[in-house]
Design goal:
This protein has 119 residues and is mostly beta strands. The protein has no helices and eleven strands. The chain is 0% helix and 55% strand. The chain is globular.
Length: 119
């Protein structure tokens, strides 16, 4: 059974920084894409940033230049460094790990961690 556990959320003032971490437990194919999505009240869940097993990142336009996604495969972990935070970044942030190929597909989610940015 694969589980994803997020940490690092909290309350921060606009312009501040937070670092989210997600640790995956259980057996997961190394051919995966790990990343972060977020959902604000009344909105759909949206992509924030992902990073492939090869280290290739992908960012939503709204966070480019402010957020950095990274991974440590030795620790089965993915991180999200969030700088220059804005009130519109307020949301529940979810860790995700999904298959990078069409063989043996999987898609796992964490429980989410709240990020609140005050103005």
């Amino acid at each position: 059974q694969v589980q994803l556990a997020e940490s690092g959320g909290g309350l921060v003032q606009a312009g501040g920084s937070l670092r989210l971490a997600c640790v995956a437990s259980g057996s997961i194919s190394r051919l995966n894409v790990m990343g972060w999505y977020r959902q604000a009240p009344g909105n759909q869940r949206e992509l924030v940033a992902t990073i492939t097993f090869a280290g290739t990142p992908n960012y939503a336009d709204s966070v480019k230049g402010r957020f950095t996604v990274s991974r440590d495969d030795a620790k089965n972990s993915v991180y999200l460094q969030m700088n220059s935070l804005k009130p519109e970044d307020t949301a529940v942030y979810y860790c995700n790990c999904k298959s990078a190929t069409t063989i043996n597909r999987f898609n796992y989610w964490g429980q989410g961690t709240q990020v609140t940015v005050s103005s």
